[in-house]
Each structure stands twice: as C-alpha cells, then as structure tokens.
C-alpha cells in the first residue's frame, strides 16, 4: 500500500475552541490508484492531504506512506505536492521554476535542466521554457507546477484542487491531460476536488467526506469506467451512475448545497 491510514484524527488547537478537522479516518491507497477526496468546504480534505505530506501531524491514529512515517517519506521525497494556486516565482523562467526543487536537492545543472525539459514536455509546455510565469495563462501555470512536482520523480502525486480556479473549458482540457499523464506514468495520485464531474472523470476511487469533522462516508470504485478516459465518457450511463452515487453520499452527509 502507498498510503495506509487507521483511525486518523486531527484537532487544531485554536484560540477559542479546538477544531476537529478529521475524525477516525481509515483510508488505504494502492499503487497506481487515482483517488479523489470530495466533500463540502471545510470538511478536512486539505488537512488529510497535508497529513499524508507530513505538513500536519495527526492528533491520534496511524499513518504509513509506503511503510514509512510521513516524515521519512517526506525526507525521501516520495511525493510531489501541487497547491491550489500555482505558486511560481515570477522572476524565474518556467524552466528555472521547475528546476528549483532539484537545485535545492543539489542535483547537477545539466541533469536539472534535462529533467525540467522532460517534465515540461510531459505537460505539453515544450517551447515555453524561457517564458516567465506571468506570460502564461492560469492553466499553463498550473501545468508548470505539475511539472515541478513531477521533476522530483515522486511515486506519489498529491494535488489540492489544482484546477479549482480555472474556467470549465480549460479545466476539461487539463483533466484530459492529467488522466493521460497518470496512465503514462503509473503514479499514485491523491486529488482534492469540489467537482463531482472532475472526481468521476479522473478517479479509480472516490472518497466522499462528511462536513466537519471530516469522516469518510463512502468509497466509490470507478472501475466500471474504462481505464483510458476520453471526455465523451461523461455521457455514458456508467459515468452518470457513479456521479449519482457521489451526489447521494454528499447528500447523506447533509452537505449537498447546490
Ligand atoms: N491551521 C488551522 N488552525 C485552525 N483551524 C484550521 C486550520 N487549518 C484548517 N482549519 C479548519 O479545519 C477545517 C478543515 O479545513 P481544511 O482546509 O482541511 O478543509 P477543506 O475540506 O480542504 O476545505 P476547502 O474545500 O474549503 O479547501 C476547517 O474548518 C478549517 O477552518
């Protein structure tokens, strides 16, 4: 298992009263899975992703990443993390943004550049190496941040609503791109989203979370959909059936506020 969490709880101590963000979460993620976390705003999706990434420590429960503690996994750079906003340095070119984590790791310049170019090609940005982030669209910037996460050659890719701020057409395009990239690389992905359609389109499994404190209400298998996904699968009855089950799960948690 790439991720194994047992009875994971996390309470944020705040000035007035403690906030329970996660409550007894059990989750296992196998190699090559694409798992989406979906749930209402504030239900603890980002917190769960941050616990996997060792950016937060759980208050109780256990979590292992490839059999290691999250800290060991972080130090071994087993994961790449893509944030909600692209978080690129405006004074660095696209290529030098992708090279930055490799620079920090002390990787030689030639290798850094080769890896950055390879990953930029993977996300369809060959030819943009020397541009600055502000010369690119929002969708392209987010592809740069995916390339940056991939440049570390992680086993696990953690993505926190990477396409949330983009228009629907760009989002469709990037979803298609991401599913192709996932198939080509065989990476394990954990993806936070608010969008039912996006979760169904991308995932092998969807984890439906309750409003705060975040608990897991349902884990939905998406393998009735073909592994190779094209945008037209969204018109299929299998797609509709899975989307329906996600919606029902969210409703059960009294969280469906559309
Ligand atoms: N550092 C913190 N200190 C105190 N409370 C926090 C902290 N970080 C998050 N919270 C609270 O914990 C709960 C879960 O937050 P989290 O960001 O994990 O939710 P989310 O599901 O990712 O939300 P969204 O979909 O809006 O991004 C929220 O109520 C949030 O206000």
From TrEMBL:
Residues 5-236 form the ABC transporter domain. InterPro entries: AAA+_ATPase (IPR003593), ABC_transporter-like_ATP-bd (IPR003439), ABC_transporter-like_CS (IPR017871), ABC_transporter_ATP-bind (IPR050166), P-loop_NTPase (IPR027417). Pfam families: ABC_tran. PROSITE patterns: ABC_TRANSPORTER_1 (PS00211), ABC_TRANSPORTER_2 (PS50893). Keywords: ATP-binding, Nucleotide-binding, Transport. One of its GO terms (molecular function) is ATP binding. It comes from the Bacteria. Belongs to the ABC transporter superfamily. This is ATP-binding cassette domain-containing protein.
């Amino acid at each position: 298992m790439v991720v194994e969490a047992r009875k994971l709880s996390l309470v944020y101590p705040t000035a007035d009263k403690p906030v329970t963000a996660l409550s007894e979460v059990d989750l296992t993620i196998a190699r090559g899975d694409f798992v989406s976390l979906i749930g209402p705003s504030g239900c603890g999706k980002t917190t769960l992703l941050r616990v996997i990434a060792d950016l937060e420590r759980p208050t109780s429960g256990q979590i292992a990443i490839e059999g290691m503690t999250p800290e060991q996994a972080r130090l071994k750079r087993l994961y790449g993390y893509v944030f909600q906003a692209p978080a690129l340095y405006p004074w660095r070119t696209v290529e030098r943004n992708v090279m930055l984590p490799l620079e920090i790791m002390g990787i030689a310049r030639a290798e850094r550049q080769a890896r950055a170019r390879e990953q930029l090609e993977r996300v369809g940005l060959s030819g943009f190496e020397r541009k600055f982030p502000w010369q690119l669209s929002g969708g392209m910037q987010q592809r740069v941040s995916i390339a940056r996460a991939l440049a570390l050659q992680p086993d696990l890719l953690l993505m926190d609503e990477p396409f949330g701020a983009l228009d629907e057409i760009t989002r469709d395009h990037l979803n298609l791109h991401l599913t192709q990239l996932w198939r080509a690389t065989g990476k394990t992905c954990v993806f936070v989203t608010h969008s039912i359609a996006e979760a169904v389109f991308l995932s092998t499994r969807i984890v439906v979370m309750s409003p705060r404190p975040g608990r897991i209400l349902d884990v939905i298998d998406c393998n009735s959909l073909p592994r190779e996904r094209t945008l037209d699968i969204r018109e299929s009855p299998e797609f509709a059936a899975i989307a329906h089950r996600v919606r029902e799960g969210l409703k059960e948690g009294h969280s469906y506020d559309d």
